[in-house]
Amino acid sequence: MPSPTFDLLTLARWVQMPERLTSIESWHRHMPFAFALLQMSKPSVLVELGTHRGDSYCTFCQGVTHQQLPTRCYAVDTWQGDSQAGFYDDAIYQDLSQWHDPRFSRFSSLLRMTFDEALEHFADGSVDLLHIDGLHTYDAVKHDFESWLPKMSPRGVILFHDTNVRWGDFGVWQLWAELAGEYPSFEFPFGFGLGVLAVGSEVPQAVLDFLAYANSNTEKTVDFFYRLGDAAQALKVSAELQKVISQREAVGSQLQELRDHLQAVEQAHAEEVTGLHTVLESRHASQQLVNDLHQQLADQKLANQELQRARQTLHAEASSLSEQALYWKGLSHDVTASRWWRLRSRLLRLFGRQDPYRKARLETEGDFPTPR
């Protein structure tokens, strides 16, 4: 029977808005109950088997900080993935570590090892609150439960996630069906299912009162925490929306920067084009001048060729005249040296004294025979 003084609303005061909300949403609706369970159980040692991105684990750590509980927290995971969650690289662990360490490393540790390897680090009867969320096959989750059960303290409470997943090789629901009748328990069906199992002989009374109330008021209890979980989900959606808005604003700023840059580039391009036109015009003018000079050189070459031909012609004519002059000079010498010429000269002297007219006629008409 539930305690007549138990009231769900008293748990709501311990609920916070979760700080770490990643893309793994399967545990988000259970975060309000995690805060409430911490207050009801006040564990000294909390262990989570299977942490992945750390949404559930960091919620527990956040609750420990807010409620100022003296709880030591341990997350056990290889951070390599499995056949169900998928395999991943070291980035998942690094992201969680960078978020977790500055906030919670004072009382919390990330143990990078298998669940079985971690057993030796915990004394029997030392763990007050255990969350099992590893490989979800029936054999795997049963092995985890049985191997860690001796580690549970008399105050021990165990949480099983994915109790309501019934596809593929998921088998938590089968183990839960076996255990729920053996121990005080309650199951939240939403968020893939979360089972609460009180395995200790001295479980805190607040936890037992809750379990009794929840089993007597199942619909009310489920609806209460589902609605509180909605707030966490809404916060996630709001955060994603704000992220999108911020990204859009950032993209808008980048687009404006790109527009300004493009405008500057276009202006610089226009100036370069103008400069190129000026250079081309200058080159065109220079080319025209070069063409004119080439034409003048060609004309000068033709003129030189004409002048050369004229000089050659004149030279030939001069040579011909020189030859004629030499010929006539030689001929004149021969004539003057001949006896006929001497005879003619005597006759001219003779007739010149007697008849000037006849002398003139002899000189002009040449009465004497032409030398041959």
From TrEMBL:
Coiled coil start-end: 248-324
Molecular function terms, GO-annotated: methyltransferase activity
Keyword vocabulary terms for this entry: Coiled coil, Methyltransferase, Transferase
Record InterPro entries: SAM-dependent_MTases_sf
GO process terms (BP): DIM/DIP cell wall layer assembly; methylation
Gene3D superfamilies hit by this protein: Vaccinia Virus protein VP39
Signal peptide (from-to): none
Lineage: superkingdom: Bacteria
Pfam name, any one: Methyltransf_24
SUPFAM superfamilies: S-adenosyl-L-methionine-dependent methyltransferases
One term under GO cellular component: plasma membrane
Keyword Nucleus attributed: no
Protein name in the entry: Methyltransferase domain-containing protein
